Model the fold of this input.
Amino acid sequence: MEIKNRDIILEQAKEYSSFYIYDENVINEYTERLKKNFRGIGFLYSIKTNPFINVVKSVFSHGFGADAASLNEVLLAEKCGLAPDMVYYSAPGKTERDIMGALGKCVITADSLNEIALIEKTAGEMGVKAEIGVRINPDFSFYGGKGGPSKFGIEEYQLFDRAEYLKGLKNIKITGLHVHLHSQELNTDCINMYYKNMFSLINRTVEKLGIDLKFVNLGSGIGIPYAREDCEVNVEALGKNLSKMVEDFKSSMPLVSVFVETGRYCVGKSGLYAAKVLDKKVSFGKTYVILANTLNGFMRPAMAHILEKYTDDEKPAESEPFYTCKGAFQYIPLNNNTETEKVTLCGNLCTSTDIMEEDIELAKLEVGDTLVITNAGSYAAVITPMQFASLNPPVQLMLKSDGSVTCADK
Ligand SMILES: Cc1ncc(COP(=O)(O)O)c(C=O)c1O
Done:
């Protein structure tokens, strides 16, 4: 596999033994592709997927709002210059402190009936009136079957049962609806069907609750190819279909903003992880290549190896954002060796589970070489336990569209 920006990566490898590098041009390409194909729809960037400030700023520069999953992400969006009406804060288990900090800085989406009561109380104590959203756990599943139990959101029937209570709230007014059921879907038809079910849900919620609806957030779902055999989502077809649904919906509710959230689609393909070969040894005929910071630098490949090796199933269950599928990462040695070798790629932690791949055939690696791993733009640095063994963590770099490389926030 040919790697773009090879010389730039090798230049950085002179300074850093492990690093992420995010390519702004790729972020531009993916964000613009969404915007071009989805008309009448706003986008919210799910910051949790990659909160590296240069990446966040880059996505926001395309007119995306924020899907914030914590007060800190609300504050990050504010720091990056987003107005409160472009920041949507949705997460389970918000505390009173979170709510106090967030009121006035974003649109809060309540995740439970308890949370509605807490926002009502907190807003009252602060003397403010707030318009909020509610996250619904609908009666249907992402794939169109029956809905099921979830730690997220308020069950549709519970929400409808409490219609009178909700109308009587003094300090908050429900003006928005949010649903997110599934991530990393590659089947365009499934996402289309989900959108269709969402508009039915929105219509019946408005009817049952009698709310003055201002926004709906359809959640995420749009996946990216990880394994070589994965196909891209047909964003053109998806956008065309959703744009039409939104047009129809807006003929009766013209003032409602419709949002789609997305994290990995914007940035997943932009990131590469580079790790230096620190050592190499042969043990009982098996060749180990010891790399800088694997489980503790980019956890997902090592996590995938653990799941694939230690679960009985041939195909471990998808568990986003930690595990997607077999063969989700490609390993590219940045050297000119034409000779190949069967090696086991492992890291420099004192645990034998710190292995990314076993007995993989690669161009022969030597100590000092750099190995690049793909699909490192999303749920990568952010979900990695970097403090393990107190090793220096990888740095994060942005390759800007002008060709310069920056470490943070320049
Ligand atoms: C509520 C919510 N919205 C959006 C996302 C983003 O998903 P993705 O990065 O797959 O687009 C997630 C991911 O966990 C989520 O939980």
DSSP finds twelve helices and 18 strands in the chain.
